[in-house]
Structure formats: C-alpha cells, structure tokens
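To illustrate the input format used throughout this study, we show a single complete record. The first block contains the structure-token representation of the backbone; no residue identities are included at this stage. The design step must infer an amino acid for every position from geometry alone.
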C-alpha cells in the first residue's frame, strides 16, 4: 500500500469518528498525533459493542485525548478510553481533569477510585439539574439583571453555576443560560439603544501637560520600566514547581515522584532558576536576554535565581571575567540569590561519574578529538570494555597517567541530534582559577550542567535553543543517576546585525587593534554598551519587548537604539553643546558683564531642576547653523535671516562675516535684539549656543561593520576582519559644552540639545571631559 493510499485510509478512519475532511487532513500533518489517534480509535472499537459505530460525542473525546494528553501518560490511555466508551467521561472538562490526575500520579497501579473522584467520572448532570440551578442563580441576581440587562457580566452567572455543577457540560450550561436570559430580558437588541456620543477630553492649547510616561506606558518619567515578565506575557507560563512531569517530553522513572517530593520539601515550592555563564569573556547583548529571562522569571514568581559560573574550562578563565559578569548582572538591576561555581561540585561530579561506570552507562574511550567531531561518529571500539577496566582507567586519568587527548570518559546515550555517546570528562593540564591544581580531568558542559541544576534544585532550567539537542541527554543523565531532574526549557537566541558577539572574534578584533578592549563602545558587549551610555533600563526594555520565542532572533540595532532613546528622553537632563564651534561676537551686547541664565534640565517639566549658564558678548554656535546660501526652507542663521538663541530670549542678525585664508567663515559679527521688543518678528528658528563653555572631547560612533552579517561568508567572503568600517569612530577635541555638565561623573548621561544623547566616558578627568555619543536624537533613516 502506498503512502498516499495509507493517508486516504487514515482520513476515512478519522472521518468515521466525526472529524470533517479538512480537520482530518490537518491532523495528518502531525505524525505523533496521527499515530496516537489511530491507536486510540482502534482500541475504542475493540471496546464498543458495535465495532464500526463511534458516536460523534465519543469521537470528539477520543480526538481530545489524542491531542491534549502528554507523552508521559500515553501508557495510561487505556483507562481513559474505556471511561469514554462507557460514557462515564461525558465531556472535555472531565477528560482534562482525568489527564491532570494521571500527570500528577503517573505510576502503576492507578488508583481508579481516586481518579474517578478527581475527574467526576460517572457523574451525570442532567438537563433538569442544569435548568434548576440556572433558575436559582438568575433569581438571586434578578434585580441587577433587570437594571443592567445585557450589560450585566454574564460570566459571573456562569461562574456561579460552575461552582455548583462542577462537572456539567459547559456548552449545555451556556445554551440553557442564553435561553433563560432571553425569556427574562427579551431580545438583546443593542441597536434600539440610544447612541451616546463619546466625549473627547481636550486640553487647552495654552496649557502645558506634564509628561508622565512614554506613549506606550512601558517607561515612566523616572526611567523605570515595566518588568520583563509583564512585557513578555504568556510566554512565561511554564509548569508549576513540582509539576515537572506535566511538561511535554519529560522522562519519568519509578523514582521520579519521590525525588519530586524531596525537591519540593527543599525549595518550599519556589521557582528556582540560574544564570550560568562561562567566565571566559565579557557578557554581550545576547546574555542580557538570558539574564532578564532567568532573573526576571524568578522575580516575577517570588522565586530565587543563582548566578553560577560554569568554570569547567580552566584554560580561558580569568578573574576579570568573574568580577565583570557579577558587575553586569547587578548593573542590569538583579541580585543573585547565591553565587556558585560548577567547580564547587567537582568532588560530587567525580563520584557520580564512577557510579555511571559501575552501572555500565559510561566507559573510557581512546578515540582522538578529531574522530569525535560531527554527528556521524562511529561507535567506539571501547564502548563495551569491562566495567572494572574503565573504573581503573578513569582513576588513572585523574592521577595524571595519560596525556591530554589520550582518554575521555563517554556516556552511553544518544543526543537528540543523533550524536552518539557525548564526552563527560576530558584531560586538561591547566591551573584552575578556583580549585588550583587539584584536578587534571574536567567535566564537560553535557555532564556538568544538568547535575549542577539538580544539586541546586533548579525548577526551570532556561537555556538557548542550541541546547535543545542536549535535552534528551540532560534527562537521561539525571535519571541514570537517580537524582532529581529539573525541566529544560529552550528559547531563541538574540542576535544583532552589524556586529559579532563570538568571544574568539572579539578577542581577534582586540589583538588586531580594530577595537581597544572588551568595552570599546563600538562592540555589543554589555560593558561596551554601558560605556557608550546605554541605560540598563533600556536594555531590559529591549529584551522584554522582543519577548521569549523559540525562533532565533536577528534584529537590526535600530530597535535597541529606539529603547535607549525612550529611556534617555525622560532621564537625561538637557544641556547645550557645540560640536564644531563657530565664534559669534555680539557687537551691541546689552550688558557690561555676562548675564546669568537659569535653564531647566527638563524643559517639559521645570520642577525637575535647573542649571545656570552664562550669556556674554562672545558665544559659539554650530558651524552647520550658519550658511551664506540658504535653501528656501532653511530656518537657521543666514546673512539676511535673523535667528533666535535658545533660552536667551534674544534674536541675532548677521552684520559681518570674517574669513580665514581659505575663505571659510571663522567669526560672525552680529547684533542682538530682545525677542519681546516691539516690532520684532518671530524668527523662523532657534539655535543652541554656548558661552564661557567647557572644552571637551566628543567621540562619535558608527557601525563597526559595513554589512549586516559580517561573519556570513556569503555576505563577506573574505571574513569579518575584511568588513571593518574605517569611519566607525570620529573624535572631535574642540567641542564646547555648557556648565550643566559641571561635576558630572563617569556614565552620567545628557541630552545635548538638537544634537543627540551623550554619556561621560571613564577617560574623563576634572579638567577634561570626554563624551561618547550614545544615540542620535532621531533614528538614522539610511538604508540598512
């Protein structure tokens, strides 16, 4: 029989239980559901007296069982199929309650009496009972029903009926409720109601409105953002602590429930997560999502989150990476419940490895590293060596009797991607930052990770999607050693265009002199983003908005920049700075001395403070704010076009242009008039300026790479080092900024009016300010 014929036969089978053709064909697309539904139908036919007669009501329940149940209780379906065929399970509500009971008690023998009680099996709620209870509920609420008619929230009525008739069919209850409400209230004719006009609340054009939040209410006026969990929403609805076995694909053993009870006794039912970075590099933007996910989910559920250093690779670990990781976690606003290291458990991990060998679930292998690469690795010729021999060889590995690469300990399991027998231990003669020279064998991630999760009683092991292939070995190893098994949940990695985040590639950029260090503001490490001036709230907001999905996420940096602007717009005080100064001398300055002006830090909300600046006969404006050949729509300063000065209340008019030897303007002689003087026309535009200003250095950053995906050989055949944007950093040492930045310290942030958002660089001194441009005021509209 061909595959096509097989499928047509299955469609006919599915239609025989009441599915329409479209639903039957949709079902075929899921091989697991197809297999399960076929088995379920055939088993039901064997139980029913009329072999080919499955009523539509029974068929609907058989379909629900096949699609709503979970793999770990498939072996118990025979109980539920019999209840369905005997019409003791009459509706989906009872079926789902029965499924939940079996998920919570997934061991033989099944206590059928308890199952029947928990799911209302055998309870028959008659139409007369439904009618009577609804009459009583409506009578209790009749006064309000008559007043509010169909505006009354009928959901509360249905909820009351459900409390009193827990196992009644929901459709039958809703139908009877509709009939009785129609009888009481008459037709629900909303069009007969008089239409009330929606009144719009308007604000006087002269009244200033204090902005309290951004347009979407994600950012408050103090810069605080809604939590990661609030914005990520339903994606965070995972299993409840202690209900690991309800998760699809979770593997049960006879000891699972006892281990789960011990787990709950230890944790008190708390959510327990962990953030487990390797201390061999600085965290990047992708890690920000992991930090928010792990710490944010725990915080949202009043749980705890460990910071666990995965320090199993001693060759690349440095103290600066340990401290740098903790620093960034705290900078993002999270406090670890406890700081642990994978190496804390090296002794226990070693003992468990010997247990695996004794159970004939691990062996010593002598295949070389190159032979173990890839997914089609041949079975090891040493896979079936005697247990005692492997135990002795493992001891020899520990005692330094083998050279690196001469022996490994491998586990007898197959990973989800088909890789055979992953390595559990390898030899490395390297000093370890924490354990010193005690060990010369080190456990791998595949061996260490799940066991550390078990030791720390992690309830939700959250990791990126590339670890999905390791999920089966994760469950296998915990169950092989009879230890508590957490649930591994995967989510898509976060990647940005126009950058690289690989530690190896960043190190290469540093060595080649392309960037200065891990915190070079052109990189997307979190230390680099902090130095550039990105607020932690903006990074958290960005992570929350992209949410938690299974798909790999590759985003344009503009989305992150937009979150930065949103936060800085309500948190960064305004000052005036001139990047490329042009001297302006006011020939009729109205005062003998400089005039002091008070300028609000946030013009839209003057209650948030102010600073003082000086206005004098010599000021500096941006070169770009003056032109001798203005276009038609030009609104700034020109020989025959006056212009206003921000915050000064004066309008200046050009009298003379002084030039250098290249005929370039170097100074303007102007006159000024008060903007409030009689007969003075309002200027087309206002420009910023400085006087008695502070000289400073401005560093402006652009994309480090020319192409969106610099490490994609199709886009950049020569490799990422050939794709460097040579104009990614511009330094201006002649900029001027007003006194609003006085006493600013490293990482303080400002909005330079009409220019952009800037942050104080750590290179600054008391006598020399250095500012990094964080983002422009508006999104860069160039093509990407």
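Output of the design step:
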């Amino acid at each position: 029989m061909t595959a096509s014929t097989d499928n047509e036969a299955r469609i006919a089978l599915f239609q025989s239980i009441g599915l329409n053709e479209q639903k039957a064909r949709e079902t075929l697309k899921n091989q697991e559901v197809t297999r399960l539904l076929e088995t379920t139908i055939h088993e039901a036919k064997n139980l029913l007296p009329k072999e080919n007669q499955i009523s539509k009501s029974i068929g609907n329940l058989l379909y629900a069982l096949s699609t709503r149940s979970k793999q770990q209780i498939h072996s118990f379906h025979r109980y539920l199929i019999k209840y369905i065929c005997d019409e003791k399970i009459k509706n989906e509500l009872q079926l789902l309650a029965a499924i939940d009971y079996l998920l919570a008690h997934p061991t033989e023998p099944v206590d059928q009496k308890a199952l029947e009680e928990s799911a209302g099996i055998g309870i028959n709620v008659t139409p007369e009972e439904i009618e009577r209870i609804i009459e009583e509920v409506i009578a209790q609420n009749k006064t309000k029903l008559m007043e509010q008619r169909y505006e009354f929230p009928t959901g509360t009525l249905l909820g009351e009926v459900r409390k009193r008739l827990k196992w009644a069919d929901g459709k039958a209850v809703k139908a009877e409720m509709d009939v009785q409400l129609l009888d009481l209230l008459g037709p629900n004719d909303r069009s007969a109601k008089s239409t009330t006009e929606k009144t719009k609340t308007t604000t006087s054009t002269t009244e200033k409105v204090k902005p309290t939040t951004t347009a979407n209410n994600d950012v408050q006026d103090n810069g605080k953002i809604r939590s990661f969990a609030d914005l990520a929403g339903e994606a965070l609805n995972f299993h409840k602590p202690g209900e690991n076995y309800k998760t699809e694909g979770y593997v049960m053993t006879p000891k699972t429930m006892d281990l789960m009870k011990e787990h709950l006794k230890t944790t008190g039912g708390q959510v327990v997560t962990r953030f487990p970075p390797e201390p061999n590099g600085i965290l990047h933007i992708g890690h920000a999502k992991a930090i928010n996910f792990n710490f944010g989910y725990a915080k949202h559920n009043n749980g705890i989150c460990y910071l666990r250093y995965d320090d199993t690779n001693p060759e690349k670990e440095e103290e600066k990476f340990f401290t740098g990781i903790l620093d960034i976690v705290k900078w993002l606003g999270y406090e670890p419940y406890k700081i642990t290291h994978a190496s804390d458990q090296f002794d226990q991990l070693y003992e468990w490895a010997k247990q695996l060998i004794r159970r004939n679930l691990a062996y010593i292998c002598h295949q070389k590293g190159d032979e173990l690469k890839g997914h089609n690795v041949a079975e090891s010729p040493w896979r079936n060596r005697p247990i005692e021999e492997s135990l002795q060889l493992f001891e020899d590995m520990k005692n330094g009797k083998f050279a690196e690469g001469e022996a490994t300990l491998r586990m007898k399991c197959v990973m989800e991607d088909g890789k055979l027998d992953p390595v559990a231990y390898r030899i490395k003669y390297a000093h370890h930052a924490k354990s010193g020279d005690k060990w010369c064998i080190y456990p791998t991630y595949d061996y260490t990770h799940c066991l550390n999760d078990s030791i720390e009683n992690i309830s939700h092991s959250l990791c990126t999607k590339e670890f999905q292939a390791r999920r089966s070995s994760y469950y296998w190893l915990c169950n092989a050693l009879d230890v508590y098994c957490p649930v591994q949940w995967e989510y898509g990695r976060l990647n940005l265009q126009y950058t690289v985040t690989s530690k190896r590639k960043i190190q290469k950029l540093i060595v080649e002199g392309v960037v200065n260090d891990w915190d070079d503001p052109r990189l997307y490490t979190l230390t680099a983003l902090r130095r550039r001036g990105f607020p932690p709230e903006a990074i958290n907001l960005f992570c929350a908005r992209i949410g938690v999905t299974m798909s790999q996420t590759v985003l344009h940096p503009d989305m992150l920049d937009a979150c930065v602007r949103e936060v800085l717009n309500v948190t960064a005080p305004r000052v005036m700075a001139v990047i490329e100064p042009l001297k302006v001398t006011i020939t009729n300055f109205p005062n003998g001395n400089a005039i002091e002006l008070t300028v609000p830090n946030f013009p839209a909300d003057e209650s948030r403070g102010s600073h003082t600046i000086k206005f004098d006969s010599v000021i500096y404006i941006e070169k770009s704010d003056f032109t001798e050949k203005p276009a038609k729509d030009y609104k700034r300063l020109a020989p025959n076009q006056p212009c206003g000065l921000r915050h000064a209340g004066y309008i200046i008019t050009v009298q003379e242009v002084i030039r250098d030897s290249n005929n370039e303007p170097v100074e303007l002689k102007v006159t000024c008039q008060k903007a409030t003087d009689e007969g003075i026309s309002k200027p087309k535009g206002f420009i910023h300026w400085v006087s008695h200003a502070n000289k400073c250095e401005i560093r402006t950053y652009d994309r480090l790479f020319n192409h969106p995906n610099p490490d994609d050989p199709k886009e950049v055949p020569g490799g990422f080092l050939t794709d460097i944007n040579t104009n990614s950093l511009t330094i201006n040492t002649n900029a001027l900024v007003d006194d609003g930045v006085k006493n600013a310290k490293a990482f303080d942030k400002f909005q330079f009016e009409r220019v952009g958002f800037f942050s104080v660089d750590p290179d600054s001194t008391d006598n020399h300010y250095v500012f990094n441009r964080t983002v422009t005021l508006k999104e860069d509209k160039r093509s990407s």
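Structural context for interpreting the output: The chain is about 35% helix and 15% strand. Residues 572-598+613-693 form a domain with the Ribosomal Protein L25; Chain P fold (CATH 2.40.240.10).
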